[in-house]
Design a protein that fits this description.
The structure holds three protein chains of three kinds.
Chain A: E1 2-3, E2 14-28, H1 31-43, H2 48-72, E3 76-88, E4 91-103
Chain B: H1 2-35, E1 54-67, H2 70-82, E2 84-85, H3 87-108, E3 113-124, E4 135-147
Antiparallel strand pairs in B: 1-4, 3-4
Chain C: E1 2-3, H1 19-48, H2 54-64, H3 76-92, E2 100-104, E3 111-114, E4 118-122, H4 123-128, H5 132-147, H6 150-169, H7 174-210, H8 218-222, H9 230-233, H10 242-256, H11 268-271
Parallel strand pairs in C: 2-4
Antiparallel strand pairs in C: 3-4
Helix pairs in contact in C: 1-6, 3-5, 3-7, 5-7, 6-7, 7-10
The chains are: A alpha+beta, B alpha+beta, C mainly alpha.
Chain lengths: 104, 149, 275
């Protein structure tokens, strides 16, 4: 599955499109990460726990979007955009959406 | 003791009413999506229609604010201790976005295609700044093209 | 660009699991963890409390109980009660406390044991006394609490729990409130056990000081029905209901073969004070 951020897939021809596809996921951190983060607040530096959490969330959101595109019979998703919001206490919501197309 | 009873009642009411409302809403969403299946919404900007064929292009948008029931909110706060996917909130955001998209398509009327669609979400409601959010607003907007054919 | 209208077969964005199931799994796990911590804390408290020497306890309590004397009333009860307690302590028990009795003016039929050996007794209770043995039993019961270090145990656990939950979830959280409430219930039942043991200690002390246990159950039979919390409320009351206590005492009296003889009356000087 080809995923691009631009409107075309360079070097390929877009044959048909299937409309909007999207994937979202919402993940919460647990108290262990919270405690480590408060400790890190003292010394500063990268909060590896949170970075990892958000990276996993982003990956899962993308996977879900690709899954939906596959169900429609597409083999590429173009013009993908991301959006983040905080929906629940201590949880981050990741949203990815794009247009499912068939290229050859 | 009465506090506990009250709390359990709230949770039960939240669960029952919430599940019912959600099921009803999803049925409505599925039905309308089938209706609008022929009006695609895409995120790309370039269109393949020659300029003289395009009748009009105008901004269309749709928004929805969905709130969550007490049962799901409590489950989410429990989930906050252990970490992981907050499954109870997934349906909330899913419904909000699909509803927003459908309302945008309703506004588009008899256009051929909606291009450059963007979707934004924000949390509103009394507790939006503190912890524990209950309401989600999703807004979808794009340009609807009417083509003569 | 050609458009092919298709609908996805399943909803990828929602996990098809029942919310109810997730709720129960999470709630039960949390409950399990809390129980484990509670049990561990119980052991920890049992280990630590006997090691807190009475000297240390007295010193620490001086920090909190500054003005214990302030509400005392000046009455003949004070001197009499103090000599009664000192007598009990000298003759029959080796408790390393320096007991001080404080008489306070209140209609409550109750007596309290505060850290550091301060026993507070209310005039409401004193007015109901009909014999020295009965009063001795009340004081012996409070001394029993000191002997078991009860006043230190119950507080310790609840305090640690509330501290942990406030630290993790903040003071506003629903979970903190529920935890505080649950603790109220369980810590009270813990202290009902302690009350029974204090009763037994008092019985032994009474037998040692007077040669018999007359007057032991008199006090419970006097508490009016309104103060008895009844069947439903008993789980939330910190004292076991009075019929249970009376039965428990009578059982021990029978088991150990304590005698019941004529009770020693209160001295005239305090009989005059009774309303």
């Amino acid at each position: 599955m080809i995923i691009t951020n631009i409107e075309t897939v360079p070097g390929k021809n877009i044959v048909e499109h299937f409309g909007l596809v999207s994937g979202s996921t919402i993940r919460a951190k647990h108290v262990g990460r919270d405690i480590m983060a408060s400790l890190k607040n003292l010394v500063g530096g990268e909060l590896k726990g949170y970075t990892q959490l958000l990276q996993e969330s982003r990956q899962q959101a993308l996977d879900r979007m690709v899954d939906q595109a596959r169900q429609l019979g597409a083999n590429a998703v173009i013009n993908v955009r991301f959006s983040t919001s905080s929906v629940a206490q201590g949880a981050a919501e990741l949203y990815a959406y794009g247009t499912a197309v068939s290229v050859e | 003791m009465y506090n506990l009873l009250f709390f359990i009642t709230l949770i039960a009411v939240g669960y029952l009413a919430g599940t019912f409302a959600e099921r009803y809403h999803y049925r409505s969403i599925d039905h309308r999506e089938k209706m609008f299946i022929n009006l695609p919404a895409v995120t790309i900007k370039t269109v393949n229609y020659p300029d003289d064929k395009i009748q009009s292009a105008e901004l269309v948008y749709g928004s929805a604010v969905i709130s969550i029931d007490y049962f799901k909110r409590f489950t989410a706060s429990l989930r906050n201790i252990f970490g992981g996917t907050v499954k109870s909130y997934e349906s909330l955001i899913d419904r909000a976005r699909r509803e927003a998209l459908l309302r945008m398509k309703e506004m588009a009327g008899d256009s051929k295609i909606i291009v450059n669609v963007r979707i934004e979400t924000s949390t509103i409601g009394r507790n939006a700044n503190k912890k524990g959010v209950g309401c989600l607003e999703a807004i979808a907007y794009g340009t609807a093209l009417t083509v003569d054919q | 660009m050609k458009y092919t209208p298709r609908l996805p077969k399943s909803n990828v964005n929602v996990t098809p699991t029942s919310v109810l199931r997730e709720f129960f799994v999470l709630a039960l796990s949390l409950f399990g963890i809390v129980i484990v911590i509670y049990i561990l804390l119980g052991f920890a408290v049992d280990l630590i409390v006997p090691r807190i020497s009475t000297d240390l306890e007295t010193k620490m309590s001086e920090l909190f109980i500054r003005s214990v004397d302030a509400e005392d009333i000046d009455s003949a009860w004070g001197g009499y009660a103090q000599s009664l307690v000192e007598n009990l302590q000298k003759r029959c028990t080796k408790l390393p406390y320096l007991f001080k009795v404080h008489v306070r003016n209140a209609s409550s039929i109750n007596a309290l044991a505060l850290p550091g050996g301060h026993i507070i007794v209310f005039t409401g209770l004193l007015d109901k006394m009909t014999s020295e043995n009965e009063l001795a039993f009340v004081f012996a019961h409070e001394m029993g609490h000191y002997a078991n270090r009860d006043h230190l145990r119950g507080v310790g656990r609840a305090f640690v729990f509330i501290t942990i939950s406030t630290f993790l979830f903040g003071t506003d959280s629903n979970i903190s409130k529920m935890l505080a409430h649950a603790l109220n219930i369980t810590e009270l039942s813990f202290s009902r056990n302690q009350e029974s043991r204090a009763d037994e200690f008092a019985l032994e002390l009474l037998n040692c000081a007077y040669g018999n246990v007359a007057g032991a159950t008199d006090f419970f039979e006097k508490i009016p029905k309104e103060q008895d919390p009844g069947k439903f409320g008993h789980y939330f009351a910190s004292h076991p209901e009075n019929p249970k206590r009376i039965n428990h005492l009578n059982k021990i009296i029978k088991e150990r073969g304590y005698k019941l003889e004529k009770e020693k009356p209160l001295p005239k000087i305090v009989q005059q004070l009774k309303k």
